[in-house]
Every structure is written in structure tokens, then in C-alpha cells.
Design a protein that fits this description.
The structure is a homodimer. Chain A is an alpha/beta fold and about 190 residues long. Chain A has helices at about 5-10, 30-45, 60-70, 130-140, 160-165; strands at about 15, 20, 30, 55, 75-80, 90-100, 105-110, 120-125, 145-155, 170-180, 185-190. Chain A is globular and about 50 Å long. The mean pLDDT of chain A is about 95.
């Protein structure tokens, strides 16, 4: 097990309905030294890629992205979620379905901060069905920028997102891929990487 | 002028209605090396305080808080904004008025992550009327924790928030205090510190 898998075993809480709570270290309280290890690991896995920008999505991706960005010496841009449809023309917009909140959201990024010169590493805390991630990818493509890779903390390997994104040909690196969770025992099974 | 005031002069954009756009380096695209300078400066200004936790609020406070946290070797907790009223009993809740969006929001923090043992540095990107900040303070107080200080990137000195918070006796440190802005010339006047 790597450092993140170990931490999930130790502090993650498995709930009914395939819910994995990691709010004590990842997405409500945030362990910055853990994020630094994640930054080091992503730096290794994306070695040699000409990454000059980190893209993430509010809110829980931002903390990880900012710490990871230190290892790439790159600025972070975070996509905003918006329910409004009154977006002016200066924004890239993607529609994404939120399963958690059962509604459609718009994901927006100002055109000022993504262009065809950008080589983008997308960072997020979770990957499940991949809707948010596909929104981010479509925004990078709309900008004419290049997706150099995608770095995820925890992928739910039993949901469709990871497979879809890998089938599209992207280098997707998830530090922990959960294959199964048992709410009765609290046990989490990880995919061998 | 300090490093942040210089950056605001260089890259901030003054709009009608006392709007200062700093989205190219602070709250949409984020300049991590700038955040590191902010961390160093806050470390100096809160020297000797027994800070063991950083509290911020989603979304644009999170990036700054995570980088600042490195200088205090402390975890970050971010308060979530919620419109729903179905909060279970495990949450601290504060009601805050959002002037930007002209609505009332709830600000919530899980009780697991704030207790009477915590000595909290509150971090946010902007201080204007101070509503969000008062919500965070009330949550820290509800938890029985101690507010050791408040670190803000940009304070709008012509709005009431800073005065209110300082009158309450808190050590509030704003790295740049804007006294006036002229949308015609783009000029920003800072308070001498």
C-alpha cells in the first residue's frame, strides 16, 4: 500500500451506499503534509511533461491543486460551479451533471486564464462517474490547450469515470483506486497498481 | 508598498462600483509563489501565537489557507457554504448574508474538526463588510476554540468589516488595505501600515 492507501485504511470511514468519508484529511479538514506527498508523487508520474498550468474545480480540489502546483512551479486555475446561465462571453462553459446534488451545474473558467499555449495538469480529489472531469477536459479543449495529464487522489474503481477517461487516451493517475468497500467491516480494497 | 500592494497596482483591475478584480493572481488564477510570500508575512505577524489550525471558507480562501498552513505546520479546515437547512447535529452552523449574491447562506463546519483545544488562525482572501468572517468567528466561539488571529489578503478599508472586527478586539492583519479606487484612472490607494 502507498501512503494514501494507508491513510484511507487508517482514517477513512466507509458508509452505506458506497460512500467513503475522507473528510478528516482530504476534503473538509486538509492534511497539508499529505498533500505534499501527493505533489511529489504526481511530479514523478508526470515527469518530463511540459506542464505550465494546474486546473482544478472548486471547492475540494483547490487545496490539493495549490500544494501540487509547488512541485510544477505553475499557477493554479480553479473552475467555478455556477447555476446561473448569465455567463458573459469571456468564459469557457461546460455543463456537468452532479450526482451528489442531483442537478445540472455549469463549470466555468475565464478565457483569460487558458489558451492554446497552456499545457495543463488537471487535479481533483475524487473521481467517480467522471462528469466533473469531462467538463474540465472539454474546457481545456475549447481553449485549444493541451491536457498533459490528470491527477486524482481517490478513484472509485467500480464506477465508470476512470475507464471512460483512460479510454479517451488521457494519462490518468489516481493515487488510490478503491475497488470495493464494506460498510459492515469498514474494509477498503484497493486495485494493485 | 509591500509585495501584495505592488501586485495589486500591477495586475488588479478597478471596475465601477468599488469592484477590484484580482482574478489573475488571487481568486480564479492563483499565483502560488505570491501565496508563499503571504504565508511568510503572516508567520511574522502572528509570531509566538500557539496556532494549531487554519480555518477558511470555500472557495477562494482555500488556496491561500493551504499555502499559509505550511508556515504554521497546521491542518486547514474549510467552512462550507450551504443553502440547505437540513444540517445534522454534527455541524457548527452560522448564518451569513452574502452581499455579492444578495442572499442568506449557511456556513458550516463539522464538529469533529474544531474543539476547545484549537487555537485558530482564520484566513480569507477578501474582507469587505465582514459577514463571512463574523460567521467563521462565531463558529470558532461555538466550538469553544480560540481565535488567535485573522489574516486577510485584501481588505476594503472603506467598508465596515475591518473596523468591526478590530473593535471586537481581534488581531486582524490585512496585507493590503484599499482606501480608495478610481475606475477612471485605475488608481488604487492603500492605507499606510
Amino acid at each position: 500500500m502507498n501512503f494514501l492507501e494507508e491513510r484511507i485504511q487508517k482514517d477513512g470511514v466507509v458508509k452505506e451506499g458506497n460512500v467513503l468519508k475522507v473528510d478528516s484529511f482530504l476534503n473538509h479538514q486538509m492534511d497539508i503534509s499529505l498533500f505534499e506527498k501527493m505533489g511529489e508523487e504526481f511530479k514523478k508520474r508526470f515527469e518530463g511533461k511540459p506542464i505550465n498550468k494546474i486546473l482544478t474545480i472548486e471547492a475540494s480540489g483547490i487545496g490539493i491543486a495549490c500544494i501540487v502546483a509547488r512541485y510544477f512551479d505553475a499557477p493554479v486555475v480553479f473552475a467555478k460551479k455556477s447555476k446561473s446561465i448569465n455567463i458573459d462571453g469571456d468564459m469557457y462553459v461546460a455543463e456537468v451533471m452532479s450526482f451528489t446534488h442531483n442537478c445540472k451545474n455549469q463549470v466555468i473558467v475565464s478565457k483569460k486564464f487558458l489558451s492554446e499555449e497552456d499545457h495543463v495538469l488537471i487535479i481533483d480529489d475524487f473521481l467517480a462517474n467522471g462528469c466533473a472531469l469531462q467538463g474540465l477536459i472539454s474546457i481545456v479543449n475549447e481553449a485549444g490547450a493541451t491536457v498533459e495529464g490528470i491527477g486524482i487522489a481517490i478513484e472509485k474503481g467500480f464506477q465508470i469515470g476512470g475507464k471512460t477517461i483512460r479510454n479517451m487516451g488521457y494519462q490518468l493517475e489516481s493515487l488510490a483506486i478503491v475497488e470495493a468497500m464494506d460498510p459492515a467491516t469498514g474494509e477498503v480494497t484497493f486495485r494493485e497498481q
